[in-house]
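4.2 Preliminary Data

To establish feasibility before requesting continued support, the project team ran the inverse folding procedure on a target of 234 residues. The structure was first converted into the token representation described in Section 3, and no sequence information of any kind was made available to the design step. The complete token record follows.
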């Protein structure tokens, strides 16, 4: 009975974002907004792939940038419950068990601001944070299958890289000071700088600089679990 009482007490204590190290795991879904990027590539004229006969723009945008599940990992430090800085990694993999596997990785740094700290009663069990960050994005796939033979067409892997600005917010519930559960919608505004004609040889002459204007956006919504280490008293 004493152990049960301590367990209940632990999960009913007031808690919110506070000073200390934290690790966040995200799981969710992401959607590409590709129209401006497609238009930018078409204006530059990327030509056709000789092996598949497809336009290089379509080969990347339509075949190797699918929407789907995402996974995120964030390691940061919260300063007095007001602001936090973190290293961030978000992955969008697809076809993991296929020879045409691919995906996108978004890695960089971000900052979180907690506007409720000092404004709302300190014994609350919830918190919100606004997020902004700057990242590097690398995306690509290993290619496509021939519709007749169902074998991978050689040298059809396409991709891109560039920079990305992150905007979003998190709403969290704290059942205890050491753990919180949240929901986070995000938007990544990307500026692709290279088109990979050969993803595997992207750093050995297989990349074309991307010119013109027209960005790329990636929207995601994720559920998160955050572990807070050595939280300090308010």
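Position-by-position output of the design step:
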């Amino acid at each position: 009975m004493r152990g049960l009482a301590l367990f209940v007490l632990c999960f009913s204590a007031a808690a919110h974002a506070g000073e200390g190290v934290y690790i966040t795991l995200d799981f969710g879904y992401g959607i590409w907004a590709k129209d401006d990027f497609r238009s930018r590539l078409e204006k530059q004229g990327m030509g056709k792939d000789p092996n598949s006969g497809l336009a290089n723009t379509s080969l990347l945008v339509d075949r190797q940038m699918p929407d789907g599940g995402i996974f995120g990992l964030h390691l940061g430090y919260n300063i007095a419950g007001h602001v936090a800085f973190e290293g961030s990694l978000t992955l969008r993999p697809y076809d993991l068990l296929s020879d045409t596997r691919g995906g996108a990785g978004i890695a960089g740094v971000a900052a979180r601001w907690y506007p409720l700290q000092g404004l709302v009663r300190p014994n609350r069990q919830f918190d919100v944070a606004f997020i902004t960050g700057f990242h590097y994005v690398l995306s690509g796939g290993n290619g496509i299958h021939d519709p007749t033979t169902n074998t991978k067409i050689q040298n059809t892997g396409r991709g891109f890289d560039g920079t990305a600005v992150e905007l979003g917010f998190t709403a969290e519930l704290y059942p205890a000071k050491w753990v919180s559960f949240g929901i986070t919608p995000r938007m990544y505004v990307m500026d692709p700088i290279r088109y990979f004609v050969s993803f595997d040889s992207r750093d050995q002459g297989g990349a074309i600089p991307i010119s013109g204007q027209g960005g790329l956006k990636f929207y995601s919504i994720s559920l998160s679990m955050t572990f807070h280490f050595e939280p300090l008293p308010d």
